[in-house]
Amino acid sequence: MIEGMIISSIAGYYHVQTDQGLFLCKPRGIFRKEKRTPAVGDRVRILPEQNEGTIEYIYSRMSLLTRPFVANVSYALLQFSIRDPSPDLLLLDTLILNSLVHGITPIILFNKTDLTDQTENERYQAIYQASGIAIHFLSVLQRDGLDYLKQTLGKGIYVLAGQSGVGKSSLINALADADLTTGQISDRLGRGKHTTRHTSLLKLREEVYLVDTPGFQNLDIEEGVSLKDVVLGYPEMEEYAQCQYYNCLHDREPKCGVKQAVKERRIHETRYENYVKLLNELRLRKDY
Ligand code: GDP
Ligand code: ZN
């Protein structure tokens, strides 16, 4: 038996990448009986026979996204653009929150830097600086910042998410074009315009993979997130959350350390405003 990772799935077949090459595999029958579906990103053990094989064992998952159906995602690239469209920062904060509640590390990408000047970049940099979340400025059109981005990504599986029209498909294509190996696999799987969609992982570097379909298409706060969870999307608030009330939501309460830090400009006003908006969005739900 050899170990590997599922890098694509189509019509009940799975491509498993191993040290000894790529194998086209079917899961053994027991998985179906147990209603366990292998997912792209799953670590598996296979029994190989020439270039084909059987998936015999699926290792336990660190995480599972449902749309796209991908296991073990560690990072979310949250893509926005500086212009056309200008960034919806409330949506960005929502996606940061949704990533962090899934245990997924967010990384912010601001695309289309070719449309503006440096001062605009600095404005957005300033808003997210204190959060500690990594930020990259790119122009996919001019291929500016792409190599640097690739080089700085740590090992793991990445999913791309963000506002529509910001260049997500362009980014996936730009990153995929540079990688012939996966390009060939994709062709063999019929990743053309006329075939049904399937999910696969693009290999960006050794042990660095990008899901080729944008994720987190649910642009609302995830189900199950409560008012007290919203702060999880705002790591910069943690050190100031020494408030009079132990369960302070940093909203209308008096003697609030977070509000004090906003006044002193240690926490960015825009981030705080969006934090309150997210609280209010949740309050409109019955089940928070
Ligand atoms: P998606 O909806 O996020 O997948 O966005 P697309 O990849 O479809 O891109 C939307 C539009 O933005 C297209 O017209 C792209 O050509 C354009 N676009 C993508 N990247 C850039 C960029 O870096 N600069 C500029 N000016 N336009 C870009
Ligand atoms: Zn407080």
List the helices and strands and how they pair.
Layout: E1 2-10, E2 13-18, E3 21-27, H1 29-33, E4 43-49, E5 52-58, E6 64-65, E7 70-71, E8 73-81, H2 89-101, E9 105-111, H3 118-128, E10 134-137, H4 146-152, E11 156-162, H5 168-177, H6 180-188, E12 201-205, E13 208-211, H7 257-263, H8 269-283
Parallel strand pairs: 3-5, 8-9, 8-11, 9-10, 11-13
Antiparallel strand pairs: 1-2, 1-4, 2-3, 4-5, 6-7, 12-13
The structure holds guanosine-5'-diphosphate (GDP) and zinc ion.
Zinc ion binds next to helix 7.
Plain-language structure description:
With 288 residues, the protein is α/β, with parallel strands linked by helices. Helix content is 27%, strand content 26%. The chain has helices at 29-33, 89-101, 118-128, 146-152, 168-177, 180-188, 257-263, 269-283, and strands at residues 2-10, 13-18, 21-27, 43-49, 52-58, 64-65, 70-71, 73-81, 105-111, 134-137, 156-162, 201-205, 208-211. The strands form 3 sheets. It has a 6-stranded mixed β-sheet with strand order 10-9-8-11-13-12, sandwiched between helices. It has a 5-stranded mixed beta barrel with strand order 1-2-3-5-4. The termini are far apart. The model is unreliable at 179-195 (pLDDT under 50). It binds guanosine-5'-diphosphate and zinc ion.
What average pLDDT do the residues reach? 91
What is the strand content? 25-35%
Oligomer category = single chain
* Principal-axes shape call: globular
Distinct ligands: guanosine-5'-diphosphate, zinc ion
What gyration radius follows from the Cα positions, in whole Å? 21 Å
User: Which residues sit in consecutive blocks of at least 5 with pLDDT less than 50?
Assistant: 179-195
Number of helices: 8
Spatial strand arrangement across the major sheet: 10-9-8-11-13-12
Sheet with most strands: 6 strands, mixed
Helix content: 25-40%
